[in-house]
Design a protein that fits this description.
Elements lengths: L1 H42 L25 E2 L24 E2 L25
Length: about 120
């Protein structure tokens, strides 16, 4: 009966040693990550001084301008056009529209949602 307890204790001892070794490995990895982080931070450029911070333009803050643009025509072609073959790089158009009135959806039309039903009204 005494040998059964000794075998059980030996198994627990090995488990305890294994847990200690695993803890030391995790601690070494954490310390290594900390040291590596400090090295990376030392290589980075320092934060800008107050005199290096961005300044407001002399004319004051820059404001957003709104204008309605004329759409570009789709080029007619027998083959499918890829986006890089289109003019404008995603802009609406190069010409300012003579009418600066913003386009509105007609009452009762679908707009951008669903089938044009009454919706939440």
């Amino acid at each position: 009966m005494n040998t059964a307890w000794m075998e059980l204790a030996a198994g627990r001892g090995a488990l305890g040693v294994g847990l200690i070794v695993a803890g030391v490995v995790v601690l070494a990895l954490l310390l290594g990550a900390f040291v590596l982080g400090i090295r990376v931070m030392r290589r980075e450029s320092p934060t800008p001084r107050p005199e290096e911070q961005p300044r407001m333009p002399a004319g004051g803050p820059v404001r957003e301008t709104r204008e309605v643009r004329e759409p570009d025509e789709m080029p007619q072609s027998d083959t499918r056009l890829t986006p890089h073959e289109l003019k404008g790089n995603g802009r609406t158009g190069d010409r300012t529209s003579p009418s600066q009135e913003r386009p509105r959806w007609n009452e009762g039309s679908s707009g951008s949602f669903g089938s044009g039903g009454p919706g939440g009204r």
